[in-house]
Each structure stands twice: as structure tokens, then as C-alpha cells.
């Protein structure tokens, strides 16, 4: 099956309906007085909301695209071989800890992977009543207009954007619930570096949960998202597609290469960093890689 822009546009409305239906199921649990959380074998929590959303999404995707297999966090089997054709990669409820703690920073994530690239992604934030979507296709204007999404990034940053980036604090998005000692050391590292000779790097920290960290970059609410700790491919694939359409990039810290999916060795991602645009990537990737290489 060939994944084309026309194919994505044809399935967009039913996919949007799917994430809305999953969002309703999640909010039904979220707004109930009591719900139980179980601990999976990997130590992460799972709730009835995860299970309900997973059932809705997987069943719907199999009806919409019966020839495309579905890989979901809730049913993933590491012993099964990776699909050798396009497949759906699903995280039915990203940010379960935020969900349990009654924070609004949890999301529904669906991505379509082709040739190790998230060619299309859609994210819903049920408690915020918002949906993001994006694809890797070069002419996404119709796709952008067909969803409730307001983005302001251009694929090629303007002179104003470069000027703004040089004079405004660097907005670093980090996790609400997973901020680590390494994150703190990274900020201390930036405190000792200069933007240009004589001018220190000024920054602010934007706290977000789940894949909303990538949405913050796509929405021009943050500039970079460094992730040193472990994540799984389904955690960021949909956000990667949304960010990429807005001109952003997701790079491996060790090599600077684009983050790849469908890895044979593990579903886990290496350390990576997301940039709002290519100008910020060119400006800060080397600095972030310098810090990372000192860790390893």
C-alpha cells in the first residue's frame, strides 16, 4: 500500500472521530469519583481509561484501514517481529501519571509509520478539548485547514524569527512529572555557556506532561525539548509528525541524525532533542550534543 497525501486526507475525518470517541471514554473515567490503577510488568501504571481507549482505537483503525496493522502500547509484544510495511503506532493514553494525579496533561496519540518515519500523526488532549495533526508531506495546507489547530511556525524561519530567538529567552520544555537530575544538570550546563561572545544564554522552563511537550513546540509555546531519559516510540511518534509539519525537527543527541522508528533492537528511543525550527536546531544541537557526550 502506498501512503499518499490523498490517502491521509481521505482517512483524516474518521481518524479524528476515533480520537474524539477515545477522548470521551477517557473523560468518563477521569470524571468518575473512583478509578483503579494497576501496575504493568514494566512498572508503569495502567487504568480503565487506557484499556477503553485502546479498544476503541484499535477496533476503529482496523475498520478504517484493514490492511494496515496496529501496534499499541497496551497490547505490544516485544517477541513479535516489527511490521515490514506501514503500520499504526498507538499510545491510547499518554501521561497516565498525570491522569491519575488529576492533571489535564494527558493525550491520545496515533501515528502512521512508513519506512521508519511517522508519516502522519494525530494527538488529542481530552481535558483540554484540543486536537493536533500533521504529516511529513510537503504540501500540508489542506490538512492544516481541516483540523482545529492554529500554528504559527514557518518551514523556513524568517529574519524576524532569528532576531527574536537571539533576544528572547530560550524556552525549554520539560516534563511535569519526570524531571530528573540530568535535566537539572543540563540547565546548570547552560548557565555556564554563552549565546554569542559576551551574551549568556537566557532561558525559561516550560513544564508540560505527555506528548504536549511536542505540541508546545508546534504551537510556538516552547523552542526546544531535550529528552535524556527513556521513552518509547509510541510516546512521541504522533507529536514528531505534528512538529515536523510545522518546520520542527527531532534529532538523536548522539549523532544529530533524525530519530528513527521500527528499530529491531528495542521499542525504546535513544536520547533525543526536539527543535521548533531548523534555525534553533543549527544553533543548539552542537551544544546539547556536547553536554550529552559528557554524560556517556
TrEMBL record:
Its EC number is 3.1.3.7. It catalyses: adenosine 3',5'-bisphosphate + H2O = AMP + phosphate. Coiled coil: none annotated. Pfam families: Inositol_P (PF00459). Keywords: Cell inner membrane, Cell membrane, Hydrolase, Magnesium, Membrane, Metal-binding. Its cofactor is Mg(2+). Substrate binds at residues 73, 93-96, 235. The keyword Cell membrane applies. One of its GO terms (molecular function) is magnesium ion binding. It is found in: Cell inner membrane. GO terms for cellular component: plasma membrane. The keyword Oxidoreductase does not apply. Belongs to the inositol monophosphatase superfamily. CysQ family. PANTHER family: 3'(2'),5'-BISPHOSPHATE NUCLEOTIDASE 1. This is 3'(2'),5'-bisphosphate nucleotidase CysQ. It comes from SAR86 cluster bacterium. The lineage of its organism: Bacteria, Pseudomonadati, Pseudomonadota, Gammaproteobacteria, SAR86 cluster.
